[in-house]
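sanity check this record:

:::
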Amino acid sequence: MIFKRGGPEDINGYIGSGLKLEGKLSFPGKVRFEGEMQGELRGDFLIIGEKGRIVGEVEAKEIICAGEIEGRLRCQNLCLRKTARIRGEIFTDKLAVEEGARIEGQIKAVEEVQTPPLTGVKGAA
């Protein structure tokens, strides 16, 4: 796996396919996202599963996407799996795209994407 760091045991958060979130969510570490979200998602390492769907802004140091994102995506390293569907703007330093992934929008290469430091962990209770 490209950009691989550790295994599933390193995941410290999981948002399941039955969850729908609205608003802002910030997280440290590695999170797997399978739910639906409308708003802003920010963190360190994000894995968006095939069932994951985000409408809004996504910002992380590293993103592996097999689901859908509609909006603005900012990251240092981006890996789009064959099932990924992206509609919007992508700002990234490194991009890997598997055959079958779909991108509709703009891709802007930037040497270093500035991700703001996480000031606290916010989430749905």
Observations:
- The radius of gyration is 13 Å.
- The chain has one domain: 10-109.
- Residues 120-125 have pLDDT under 50 and may be disordered.
